[in-house]
Design a protein that fits this description.
By secondary structure, the chain is α/β, with parallel strands linked by helices. It has three domains: 6-129, Alpha-helical ferredoxin (Fumarate Reductase Iron-sulfur Protein, Chain B, domain 2, Orthogonal Bundle), CATH 1.10.1060.10; 145-239 and 405-470, FAD/NAD(P)-binding domain, CATH 3.50.50.60; 243-402, FAD/NAD(P)-binding domain (3-Layer(bba) Sandwich), CATH 3.50.50. The chain has helices spanning 6-9, 20-23, 36-44, 53-57, 64-72, 76-84, 90-96, 100-104, 116-129, 153-164, 181-184, 193-205, 222-228, 257-269, 293-305, 412-416, 444-447, 452-470, and strands at 145-149, 168-172, 209-211, 231-234, 240-241, 254-256, 285-289, 309-314, 347-350, 352-360, 363-376, 382-394, 397-400, 404-406, 439-441. The chain has a five-stranded parallel beta sheet with strand order 3-2-1-4-15, with helices on both faces. It has a five-stranded parallel beta sheet with strand order 6-13-7-8-9. β7 (285-289), α15 and β8 form a beta-alpha-beta unit. It is globular, with a radius of gyration of 23 Å. The two termini are 41 Å apart.
């Protein structure tokens, strides 16, 4: 710990966002960067606590005090090496992780935590700029082969870990490009896709084999994969979206959020989209149902496409601002979150339940919502009660951003015959094994929709489990 009093004299300084009147006209990353000296000062604020709650809160177990100190001392190479000991892709998490580490930072007791996420992104960028991140192919091969199905963060992390242990790894991806939801689900203004591409270049140089445009269960049978590989890792994510079925759900203009977000990323990459499937918010009144990050991404994308007005509704009540006694430090706080997209122009409403979709000539034109009241019963369980207060929201385009419930079971999973848990995820034991011999599962496919940082952690775990089994 180079400066034990830095947190007392150096205030928290965030890089901030590009000006709104500039960023809404492109899909470039909205977050700015600090210069290296400012970044070193921010890293110096880490107190090297006796009990590092930041480390406790991180699903990956990143050693924050260690690499913060290395950044402060200008040891960028050692800093990124410390990060890579626990995290394969700090350049991903440094951009899109909600940073549970910061919420658990002791300085967050005064609402001024260390800028851990930004520091993580910064040290990785310095390392890439200076050529400090290099491919690490294994010196010897075991002769064992592993198929990783799915190329999201869990699949990529699992593949890299297994490959470095000497196994020959092939990643199968049904889409045109690798990256899973990192590429098709997260807008470019949060994660530029060249960030993924440079990692893929590294993985390919390390010897991992890529098979895009290959859907297992369709282009290649699941049985064939099991026969041809010593182990199979299911990292297909939780792609089954949560739906609602009020009156008028079949009207045109109502889409799942991921259809919209994936299509916009496809357009940026130059992938063809037929006119009859094109979803565009230009000159439209947009309603986003769902108040999470995916809904926020729909807001930002609609702004860039030129929507006339954007409304985002949430069935839950508005969270408290800054502090919530129900989720005290060091737990992740349930408080009001305002994203960069919200600051670009959006009306937000809470405690609204969707009652019906109305339209003309088969096209949605408005949505009927009802205010609901929330209360706790004697057991502490929340209950929702309709209030009878009805509101009509004009909407030419509706996006359902209600999350995901479990992996898509039709096709590959049913063909393999894997068991499912009570929530519809692939059932696994403590060694990440499914009910089918040689088949393992990881990431959202095994636990349901979660954070990128948790997906990477589970990808690393399944790699260790597969390695032990193969040995």
């Amino acid at each position: 710990m180079g400066n034990p009093k830095a947190f007392m004299y150096t205030p928290r300084k965030e890089a901030g966002y590009r000006p709104v009147n500039e960023r809404i006209y492109d899909f470039g990353e909205v977050e700015q960067t600090l210069n290296r000296e400012d970044r070193k000062l921010q890293a110096s604020r880490c107190m090297d606590c006796g009990i590092p709650f930041c480390h406790w809160a991180c699903p990956l177990g990143n050693k924050m005090p260690e690499w913060q100190d290395l950044i402060y001392k200008g040891k960028w190479k050692e800093g990124v090496e410390s990060l890579h000991e626990t995290n394969n892709f700090p350049d991903f998490t440094g951009r899109i992780c909600p940073a549970p580490c910061e919420k658990s930072c002791v300085l967050n007791l005064h609402e001024s935590p260390v800028t851990i996420r930004e520091n993580e992104c910064a040290v990785t960028e310095v390392a890439f700029t200076e050529g400090l991140i290099k491919a690490q192919p294994p010196k010897t091969r075991t002769g064992k082969t592993v198929a990783v199905i799915g190329s999201g963060p869990a699949g990529l992390a699992a593949a890299q870990q297994l490959n470095r242990k000497g196994h020959t790894v092939t990643i199968f991806e049904k889409d045109s490009y690798l990256g899973g939801l990192l590429r098709y689900g997260i807008p470019n203004f949060k994660l530029n896709k060249n960030i993924i591409d440079r990692r893929l270049d590294q993985l390919e140089e390390e010897g991992i084999i890529f098979k895009p445009k290959t859907e297992i269960g369709k282009d290649i049978s699941g049985k064939e994969i099991i026969t041809n590989f010593d182990a199979v890792c299911l990292a297909i994510g939780a792609g089954h979206p949560r739906d609602i079925k009020p009156e008028g759900r079949d009207l045109k203009g109502i889409h799942f959020a991921m259809e919209f977000l994936a299509q916009q990323n496809q357009l940026i990459m130059g992938e063809p989209v037929s006119d009859d499937k094109l979803i565009n918010a230009k000159n439209k009144h947009v309603l986003v149902i769902g108040g999470g990050d995916t809904g926020s991404d729909c807001v930002g994308t609609s702004v860039r496409q030129g929507a006339v007005k954007i409304t985002q509704i949430e069935i839950l009540p508005q969270p408290p601002v800054n502090k919530n006694p129900d989720t005290p430090w060091p737990y992740y706080p349930n408080i009001l979150k305002t994203s960069s997209s919200h600051k670009e122009g959006c009306e937000r409403k809470w405690s609204l339940n969707t009652v019906a979709f109305k339209g003309e000539n088969g096209q949605v034109t408005e949505v009927i919502v009802e205010e609901v009241a929330w209360s706790k019963d004697e057991t502490g369980r929340w209950n929702m009660k309709p209030t009878g207060k009805i509101e009509t929201i004009k909407a030419d385009l509706v996006f359902l951003a209600l999350g995901f419930i479990h992996p898509v079971q039709e096709g590959l999973l049913t063909e393999l015959g894997v068991d499912f848990d009570a929530r519809g995820n692939v059932a696994t034991d403590k060694q990440s094994k499914s009910s089918v011999s040689k088949v393992f599962a990881t990431g959202d496919a095994a636990i349901g929709a979660s954070l990128v940082v948790r997906a990477i952690a589970l990808g690393r775990k399944v790699a260790e489990d597969i390695h032990k089994t193969l040995n």
